[in-house]
């Protein structure tokens, strides 16, 4: 039986630049939190965070997207942010996260989705989009991938995976700082630490690196290969917005540009002077990229 913990609301009081009203939905017997800003009739923008962040990562992007008339939805993955957190690493699996996010999209009955995903948000979001293509209108990918295990994991990733497994201290806020170019304030570092009062709350964050497929026979490899088959025939708009100072994903945009039909003719961008967490370093610039991307398809936004 799954045991979950819920971070006290007091941990989230007074966070810098994060005053969005909370929303919750029940997913598989757990409470999942999400931000939902902007007009309900607006085009839906789904923002998926990765490891070990939460929707706080999108605080710079939500207001300009909302102000452009878009409905902005930024969920906290199970195990992160204000969402419930199973306490055992064995409670988490790649397929489980895909199932939870699929259930979230279905619970809110989202359609015409404009997806932006990064890091583990891409491993999850791209699978959900491939398996539920009728709900998605276009995809923008930043510093993300969909590994199948055919290619060897990089040295940087292997070090990160070992650190997540063996480190007795897993400092979430400092990890975020290591993945950015800009210096985070003490309050921002504390905000990333806020969901995790103790080690008991960090099982999901520690589990993620080990869930990425690194061999062709990984439990998730077949499903990811099937998703790639979908994307090789994906004709809906597909945009890449990678950063130039990400030691893990830099250059990873090329495979998507060369493989996805919907990527042809798009105004792909390289976000300069941004690290792995480009939402932190260049959130406003990235939001502008998304608004232009959506506007090209709808003509409805400035």
Provide a descriptive summary of the structure in words.
By secondary structure, the chain is α/β, with parallel strands linked by helices. It has a single domain, classed as Rossmann fold, CATH 3.40.50.1820. The protein is 35% helix and 16% strand. It is built from 10 helices and 10 strands. The strands form 2 sheets. An 8-stranded mixed sheet has the order 2-3-5-4-7-8-9-10, sandwiched between helices. It has a two-stranded antiparallel ribbon with strand order 1-6. A hairpin with a 2-residue loop joins strand 2 (22-27) and strand 3 (30-37). Helix 2 crosses helix 3 (120-131). The chain is globular.
What's the SSE blueprint?
Layout: E1 4-5, E2 22-27, E3 30-37, E4 44-48, H1 62-67, E5 71-75, E6 85-86, H2 94-107, E7 113-117, H3 120-131, E8 136-141, H4 155-166, H5 172-178, H6 186-193, H7 203-211, H8 221-231, E9 238-243, H9 253-259, E10 269-271, H10 278-298
Parallel strand pairs: 4-5, 4-7, 7-8, 8-9, 9-10
Antiparallel strand pairs: 1-6, 2-3, 3-5
Helix pairs in contact: 2-3, 3-8, 4-7, 5-6
């Amino acid at each position: 039986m799954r045991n979950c913990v819920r971070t006290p609301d007091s941990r989230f009081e007074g966070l810098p630049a994060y005053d969005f009203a909370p929303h919750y939905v029940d997913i598989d017997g757990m409470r999942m939190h999400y931000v939902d800003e902007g007009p309900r009739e607006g085009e839906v923008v789904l923002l998926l965070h990765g490891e070990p962040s939460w929707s706080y990562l999108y605080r710079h992007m939500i207001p300009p997207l909302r102000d452009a008339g878009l409905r902005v939805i930024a969920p906290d993955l199970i195990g992160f942010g204000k969402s419930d957190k199973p306490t055992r690493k064995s409670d988490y699996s790649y397929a489980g996260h895909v199932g939870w996010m699929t259930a979230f999209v279905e619970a809110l009955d989202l359609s015409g989705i404009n997806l932006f995903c990064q890091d583990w948000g891409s491993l999850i979001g791209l699978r959900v989009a491939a398996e539920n293509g009728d709900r998605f209108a276009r995809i923008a990918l930043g510093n993300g991938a969909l590994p199948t295990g055919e290619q060897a994991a990089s040295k940087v990733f292997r070090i990160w995976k070992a650190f997540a497994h063996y480190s007795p201290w897993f400092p979430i806020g400092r990890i975020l700082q290591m993945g950015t170019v800009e210096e985070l304030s003490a309050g921002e570092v504390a905000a990333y630490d806020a969901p995790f009062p103790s080690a008991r709350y960090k099982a999901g964050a520690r589990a993620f690196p080990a869930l990425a497929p690194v061999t062709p026979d990984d439990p998730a490899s077949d499903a990811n290969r099937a998703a790639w088959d979908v994307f090789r025939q994906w004709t809906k708009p597909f945009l890449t917005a990678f950063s130039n100072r990400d030691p893990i994903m830099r250059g990873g945009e090329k495979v998507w540009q060369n493989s996805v039909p919907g990527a042809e003719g798009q105004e792909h961008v390289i976000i300069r002077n941004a690290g792995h967490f480009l939402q932190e370093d260049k959130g406003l610039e990235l939001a502008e990229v998304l608004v232009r991307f959506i506007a090209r398809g709808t003509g409805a936004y400035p």
